[in-house]
Amino acid sequence: MKVIEITDVYKIYNSSEIKVNAVNGVSLDFEEAEFAAIVGPSGSGKTTLLNLLGGLDLPTSGKILIDGTDLSLLKSSQLIDFRMRNIGFVFQAYNLIPVLTARENIEFIMNLQKMSKASREERSFELLKAVGLDDRAGSRPSKLSGGQQQRIAVARALASKPRFVLADEPTANLDSKSASTLLEIMEKLNHEEKITFIFSTHDPRVVKMAHRIITLEDGKVVSDVRTE
Amino acid sequence: MIPEIAWKNVWRNKSRSLIVITAVTIGVFAGVFTIAVMNSSVVQRIDAAVNEELSHIQVNNKEFRSSSDIKSLIPAYDKVVAEMMKAPGMQDLTGRIIIRGIASTAGRSTGVEINGINAAKEKQIFTLHEKLIPGTGDFLDTETKYNKAFIGEKLARELNIIRYSITEESLKKLKDEKLPGEISTKLIALKGERFTSDKKFSRAVEAVLLPGEYRKYIYLIKEAAWSYRPGSKIILSFIDINNNQTEAAFRVSGIFRTNNDMFEAMSVFVPEEELRQLTGIPENSYHRVIGRLKDNSLSEAASAYLKKELPGYEVMQWKEIQPDLAMLADMMQQIYGIFMGIILAALSFGIVNTMLMSVLERTREIGMLSAIGMNRNRIFSMIMLESVFLSLTGGLSGMLVSGIVIAATSKNGINLVQYSEGLEAFGYSAYLFPTIDAPFFIMTTILIVFTGILSSVYPARKALKLNPIEALRKE
Q1: Prediction pTM value
Q2: Which residues of A sit within 8 Å Cβ distance of B?
Q3: How many CA atoms lie within 13 A of B234 on its CB side?
């Protein structure tokens, strides 16, 4: 079942009379429960493509359908709501809310979705256990290591059971041990929760674990290889 | 969740928030306490006017106030009394004979309003008897063979009934009142002299003290040097009911002191029956009937009722008799609002600055919140609540400090005796007992919340303008 359909998408930036084709005619599909990595050199358009998939930016031309919904037809407020309900984000710099505890960070989106307290607590406990941090539920981000923060960020991204998770260089700031732990957890959750994971990465460890590797160069897909 | 995050965000940078909260606390305290002091002077003036001079409701013969004619008596007095007792909230009432005349002593005379009263009844309506200066006699209570009059301190001074002298006793009193020793030493030069008027004594004291010392201590010195011979005689002259010039000697039965110099200088109270005999006004005839209500707030209703039921009479509530006071009371509410508004407007710049710094520091975080699905309204609410919490914390602590200081100062009052002559000339007390009512605190709280909301608009707009992608790229 197709979760994402990208058809002939272009993203062109016009800055100081220089036209930059950040995404240059990309067409891709993502199935449910895929574990895909988008790779390529710096400036190849990985982050731009991820932003387009997350509805943070709109394509100059082409179509992006998420479960059949064309993102470019949504109003700004509808797009924010759509992101909240369907997309999980994991950022390179973790970006947890510093004044909230690990558990509160996980519950944040469920709170925005007005889920009941009991459901929130059940889900956050389940995720804390899944990422191996159930003993750190009451810790604030400043008391957690980088790896632990990124595991909480993954749990937050999965909290509301989104259709897919976008992770922009999730292991870039982590040491190899933390990165391996994080990847194992993400693969396990991908398998258990049947949620699609799409990474942009330079990290060979991520590439090694991905089930599909999409390579971008100059905004174009130059290879799309399934390893499973 | 949003209020919880907003509250936690306020305490993210503790020192910065505490600086703003302290500024708001000081500003609100300054505003509330100043207003409490201003308010006390107005409240005390109104209380004094109602309790000592006017009471709540007065009914006059229609011609009386404009003509002051002794013959303008209230016709059908019993009917008026019966109607007045039916007015909403009426507690008690009394009649007064009021005539214009001249009070004189050897060499001094002044125009006065002579009030023929029933002393026992007056005590039910007014508190003037409580204003008797201790040691000067009583409130027309003692039976004597002489006519007796209860007069104000200012009139007593005008008529040179009060004497001033620096004696061992007055110097001791001044020492008890903590007058500096060097001032007492200077006053010894005046020992043994007896001054027959306020003016002469003031001049003599001014000559021995430095100008600053004189301004600071003259009130205290006058109080200690003040003396009065009980039973001093004054002559009251007036026109009787047959248009004959009449005069009679009265012994001063007691001297009262209020905060209203004009009232003290103009008012003479004598027993009703003595004045009736001297003027020929028949029994059961009065110029004015004065009513006291259970509560000041009933004045409007009682006045409306009596105006309807007594169409041939002049019915006035205290607000109509002294419209300046009524206007002052109404205007003060607006002045308090404007005053607090100006203080909070000034404070809002500090709050805006702090909020702006806070928002700009969190650019990436706000971008992330927007990316993961926090909509514009929620981001705006979060920043607005942070601003409201910041101002409300400062505002509430400012009001708490004000409440404590008001409670402390309202026990003993604020002593402004240095300015007593000026204040009392306008009927205001030299001792202020700061007071503020609950609605003012409610109004201030609303203003503080409004300030918080207003201060959040600019920083919140800045936050809403952030593009999530650009915000997330910020270091």
Answers
A1: 0.76
A2: 51, 54, 56-57, 77, 80-81, 83-85, 88-89, 91, 93, 95, 97-100, 108-109, 111-112, 156
A3: 34
Which residue out of A13, A84, A95, A150 would a mutagenesis test of the B interface target, given it has the greatest number of B Cβ atoms within 10 Å? A95
Domain boundaries, chain B: 2-48+325-473, 63-160+230-311, 162-228
β-pairing verdict for A35-39 and A212-217: parallel
Mapping DSSP to helix (H, G, I), strand (E, B) and coil, where does residue B181 land? Answer: helix
- Taking the CB of residue B212, how many other CB atoms lie within 10 A of it? 8
pLDDT tens digits for chain B (475 residues)?
889 999 999 998 899 999 999 999 999 999 999 999 988 888 888 888 999 999 999 999 988 988 888 999 998 889 999 999 999 999 999 999 999 999 999 888 999 999 999 999 999 999 999 999 988 889 988 888 889 999 999 999 889 888 899 988 888 888 888 888 898 899 888 888 888 888 889 999 999 999 888 988 888 898 888 888 778 899 999 999 999 999 999 999 999 998 888 899 999 999 999 999 999 999 989 999 999 999 988 999 999 999 999 998 999 999 999 898 888 888 888 888 899 999 999 999 999 999 999 999 888 888 889 888 888 899 999 999 999 999 999 999 999 999 999 999 988 888 777 777 677 666 677 788 888 888 888 988 999 999 999 999 999 998 888 888 778 776 5
Contacting B residues, span 254-293, partner chain A, CB-CB under 8 Å: none
Q: Do B9 and A99 touch (CB under 8 A)?
A: yes
β-partners of residue B100 are B113
Do the beta carbons of residue B198 and residue B164 sit within 8 Å? yes
Contacts of A57 in chain B (CB under 8 A): 469
A23, A164, A216, B163 from A213: Cα distances, Å: 17, 16, 10, 111
Distances in whole angstroms, Cα of residue A183 to Cα of each of A189, A208, B70, B150, B386 = 10, 10, 107, 100, 38
A51 contact residues in B (CB cutoff 8 A): 469
DSSP state of B243: S
Contact B370 A80 (CB under 8 A): yes
Cβ-based contacts of B376 with chain A (< 8 Å): 77, 80
Q: Which residues of B touch A98 (CB under 8 A)?
A: 12, 365
